[in-house]
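Batch job 17 of 40 flagged for manual review because the log was empty.
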Amino acid sequence: MAAGLRDQYLPALDAVRAAARPGETSAGWLAAERSDFVRFNRGRVRQCGTVERATLELRLIAGDRQARRTLTLCGVAAEDRARVAAGFDWLRAAIGRSGPDPWLCFSPVPSASLALERALLPGADEAVDAVRAAAGDADLVGFHASGPLARGFASSLGHAHWHEADAWFFDHSIHVGEGQAVKATLAGGDWSAQRVAGSVRDARAQAALLRRPALQLAPGSHRSYLAPAAVAELLGLLAWDGFSARAHRSGHASLARLRSGAAALDARVRIAEDLAQARAPRFQADGFTRPARAALVDGGRFDGWLVSPRSGREFGLDDNGAADAECPEALSMAGGGLPGAQALARLGTGVAIGNLWYLNFSDREACRITGMTRFASFWVEDGVAVAPIAPMRFDDSVYRMLGEALEDLTSEAVPIPDTDSYEGRRSGSITAPGALLSGLALTL
């Protein structure tokens, strides 16, 4: 498995480099994967298989015009070269009907890189055996995916980039009926059946608490501990537009007040786009390279934004190689001084929230977020979880939650992988610590 993607799909990128005619620039962005996947229900296999998929976005530039087309590759060199040639013929016909693009941006300086990041991955049978043994008689629902992910970029100007990383994740939950469940996600590094067993064991222990009668809390401000997965959900919503230079310059960024200095977070809050930690590609589809790490919030203050080359040209900014969407792909929040094992003891009496869902902005300008508690959320007394709480809505400002209400962050920051596989597996992740809050506004 680890040997194949680069050798199999490089011929298509070679064809991209050779496709340009005088006065043209040809480029291609490739995304490929080979994935073993297994879906579990009630602790048993419900679906399994192997998927190999590769797409190539072709781009033709002529003067101030451009056109794009996406192909599916088959991995047979001769056939893929023919598909690339036919794709550029189609683009030549289309580009003549395209209008000028005033913000067209493409790196004129050729660059090259090669990153092959290997890890110990399980065979499908090994993964199944580990999960089934850990699940026992529990109602485990889960999704395991494993295999190499690759991104490549090439152009007729001489760009030649390839990034390939072996990756796996196991997203699972233990259900106890009546909509109650404990959810957890594992990923990263070498495969470990022991880690899987430990995660399932912890989830089963929490699931036993969910069988107790649920406590309905009164609306109001409650002392709370947000687990890393819950903090990651908050960060994921901020990633929509909070760090985008285009969003800030267009006047609709959720963190506009942080950038202007009208609001601040706690001085312990430090957030960065950390591609190196997430093993994500250091190049993008316009041919520009990207820094290994870009600071976004430091000491609770806005310290940087993500600027795509297109936004840089439109707004007269120095770009940092962000993709067109200017959304973080590897958002990372630094930990604090609270050992995770002591989080409930420090909470004392209050609410421990494992997950959040249905998040959205209730007041974008004020960076106010609403959402629901989900799955394993418990009422804690004297540092011990004693009962599940019924799902409740919260509505609170990030400036308060990660500002005046923040008592501490756990010292451990946990990587939460992007498990979306609808259009292929993703290399992104959010790394987040847990957060101890003096109060969280629960509304109903």
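Reviewer: the log was empty due to a logging misconfiguration, but the result itself is present. The mean pLDDT is 95. Unflagging and moving on to job 18.
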